[in-house]
From TrEMBL:
Residues at which Mg(2+) binds: S311, D373, D374
InterPro entries named among the record's database cross-references: GATase_2_dom (IPR017932), Ntn_hydrolases_N (IPR029055), PRTase-like (IPR029057), PRTase_dom (IPR000836), PurF (IPR005854), PurF_N (IPR035584)
Source species: Spongisporangium articulatum
Protein name, as recorded: Amidophosphoribosyltransferase
Domain of life: Bacteria
Enzyme Commission numbers on file: 2.4.2.14
Note accompanying the cofactor annotation: Binds 1 [4Fe-4S] cluster per subunit.
Pfam families with a match to the protein in the record: GATase_6 (PF13522), Pribosyltran (PF00156)
Keywords in alphabetical order: 4Fe-4S, Glutamine amidotransferase, Glycosyltransferase, Iron, Iron-sulfur, Magnesium, Metal-binding, Purine biosynthesis, Transferase
Domain Glutamine amidotransferase type-2: 23-249
Cofactor(s) this protein cannot do without: [4Fe-4S] cluster; Mg(2+)
HAMAP family linked to this entry: PurF (MF_01931)
Residues that bind [4Fe-4S] cluster: C264, C410, C461, C464
Catalysed reactions listed for this entry: 5-phospho-beta-D-ribosylamine + L-glutamate + diphosphate = 5-phospho-alpha-D-ribose 1-diphosphate + L-glutamine + H2O
Amino acid sequence: MARGDGRLSHDLIPGEKGPQDACGVFGVWAPGEEVAKLTYYGLYALQHRGQEAAGIAVSNGSQIMVYKDVGLVSQVFDENSLESLRGHLAVGHCRYSTTGGSTWENAQPTLGATAAGTVALGHNGNLTNSHELRRLVGERYGEVAGGEVSRGNTTDTALVTALLAGDRDHTLEATALEVLPRLRGAFSLVFMDEDTLYGARDPHGVRPLVLGRLESGWVIASETAALDIVGANFVREVEPGELVAIDADGVRSTRFAEPTPTGCIFEYVYLARPDTTINGQVVHESRVEMGRRLAREHPVEADLVIPVPESGTPAAVGYAQESGIPYGQGLVKNAYVGRTFIQPSQTIRQLGIRLKLNPLRNVIKGKRLVVVDDSIVRGNTQRALVRMLREAGAAEVHVRISSAPVTWPCFYGIDFATRAELIASGMGTDEVRANIGADSLGYISLDGMVAATNQRADRLCTACFTGEYPIELPDSAFLGKHTLEADNPEALPGLELAVRHS
């Protein structure tokens, strides 16, 4: 899947899926501005976080309108659809499905009818207690109409929306302060009613969320890169365990849980845009430093360092700087592959990786190569890449990976393969090297990877590398991508979509 910021994901081969991103969220409160267009560009900057669906909800003070569909941000919206969304505040979402299938019904923002109006919500992350929340919705609200927990919507986000919307005795803000402490797992939320924009982040701060200032308003977004594109100045991160509310009276903050920060280290390795800043650290600088440390930990005699574009580029630059081996472009990416709904023919499928990458033979021929990538998941992509480079005349292929071996699945918003499919969970480094056909293979150490982020080790989630999960997981029967689909979706009839525009 091609990335909106020019990165190239691991699924270079049809059927090979690498680590898929969580989602991107964006909210803006700016009277007098074209908030739908600001949200569109914010989502465009966050496209790398999700390419399956996109949506924008806008309030004009008396009603909320939503427009959403499957596809990339640029495919879902056009000038006419954005012109139809007029108001003073908006929330937007671009989606990759970590719970619930990739269908229109599961696109966000989700909607629910509250006592006073409507709530529209976008969610980045993954909840681990969806089974408990579904039971809670059923016990509290039963046949309440206006939510999105229905036969169609199977996301954990729909459960949160139903809980926020179902309390008819309290304001949305008061309800949120009661509901948020009940959520387990990773969540960075943007939501709104007709008048107020809200942002909330789980007590561990697993996924990023930032607050920005416009000349005439405020922005909440997944990454600082989304602030940059709309001309907002970075103010601060939304703190773990914090609820931020923005309306005509300004910004107010409430703590709903004590913070125990353990942000996702994979944001620094791969997920976030390189021009994003997380907890004071520019992601690009961390990735270059990972390359430098990788060179110190796994040196090799070679003629040329090349990246797997684009995700391996910063680390390859760092490797070349530290090792003194020249950096070069040995692989050319097809910039126009993008996300396509046209399945490749059998002939094209057999060409596999060449659909998206092609070697520069005159650069590669006869050279001893260091090939730098950010991670290995199943190994299919690296196996095909090594074979392609050898066919192009490479004398040696030495693979270097700027993350530690991925050996455990993520339950907090990254859709890795299952543990059985993770090549490093069943093989040692030399076995993986032989499997992909490389002359040598080196992963950065966990300590080296952590040091490159400039963060304290105890403030980072490294569960996909260590199997040590900072947030308690439920019984294995209730874990999995489609938790809600397996958990009796007929249990709450009558909870239907509040508004549907497509």
